[in-house]
Amino acid sequence: MTRLDRRRAWRWGPAVGWAAVVVVGSLVDPPGTATATTGPFGVLPADKWQHGLAYTLLGGLVARAFGRTALRAALAAVAVVVAVGFGVELLQSVVPWRTASLLDGAANAVGALVGVGGWQFAAKRSPGRWERS
Hints:
Number of strands: 0
Distance between the termini: 18 Å
Strand content: under 5%
Shape: globular
Helix content: over 70%
Largest sheet: none
C-alpha cells in the first residue's frame, strides 16, 4: 500500500464505515418499539433526532474526507450525504418492515448541512490540524 493509498484510506475509511452502519441500521428489522416517542425538549419525534445526529456525523466525516474547506468541496459533501440519505429512504420503501418518509429525508439533509458546516467551521479555525492535502 502506497502512502497515497494509506492517506485515502485514513480519510475515507471512517466516512465509508459510518455510512455502512447507517445504511444497515436503516434497513434491518427494528427490535421492538422501546425507543422514546419524543426527542429532547419535546419538539420533534425521537426518530428525527436520530436521523439528524446520524447524518450530522456522516456529514462531518464526508467533509473531512474531501479534505478541503472550499465551498465546492462543502457542497459536494452535502450532496453526497443527502444522496445517501434519500437513497436509504428509497431502499426503505421496498423493505416490508420499514417505511420511507420525506420527513426522515429532510432530517437527514438537515443533519448533513449541520455536519458539513461544523466541519467547515472547525477546519477553518485550525487548518493545520484538520486539513491535510
